[in-house]
Amino acid sequence: MTSFEVPLTRREAVVRRLRQEITAGQLPAGTVLKDAELAARLGVSITPVREAITQLAAEGLVDVAPNRTRKVAGLTQKSALELVDVMELLACAGFAGGVDNLTDEHLARLRTRYTEYTGALARGDVTTASAAGADFSTIVVMANGNRELQSMLDLVVVRVLRMLAMESHSDSWRPWVEGYGEVLELLERGDRAGAVARYRRIYVEFRAAVERSLWPGEAGDA
Q1: Model confidence over 139-191: pLDDT tens digits?
Q2: Which domains does the chain have, with CATH numbers?
Q3: For the chain: N or C, fewer Cβ within 10 A?
């Protein structure tokens, strides 16, 4: 039987588009989201735009003020560190659970994603790099077979990717570039325990990089 891709609904299409624009920094924090303007720009009616913004608010990407004004949510250093901690708990649990189920096919896909990841960064293509980097972890987590864990992780990753929607030479990329490369080498050598330990260290290094960052509006607290 021939497989086919189910087309996105208008709401799903708008959610995906706005989520991409937010995580890529094309819609910066504080941007007011107006239904009519977005509908006109995206070529849809107001209803799917409103539904999409409601979903993005549930994901923490949009803030809704008491007067119903919707803005792209800001991200403080404190909230960023909290997100990193949550992502670490979910991702490391999924990685540790899936690593023993990896096949040669999985390893080949990991190598492909890592090549795409580093290549995109070299080109300064932050959006492609973010997607490839997220897929690298997803391949291992999904080998665990726990789809609920991956679903929760996806929501957190979307928000964390906003921290990486910056210049491709940012120090925050370094833990992932070096860490993913070393994890992949360990997996290809058959050192699964070593790969898990190195994967966990990525989050320690990334958290330290976030702590070193000076976030907008927090200069006085440094």
Answers
A1: 999 998 888 998 889 888 877 776 666 555 567 889 999 999 999 999 999 99
A2: 10-72 (1.10.10.10), 77-212 (1.20.120.530)
A3: N
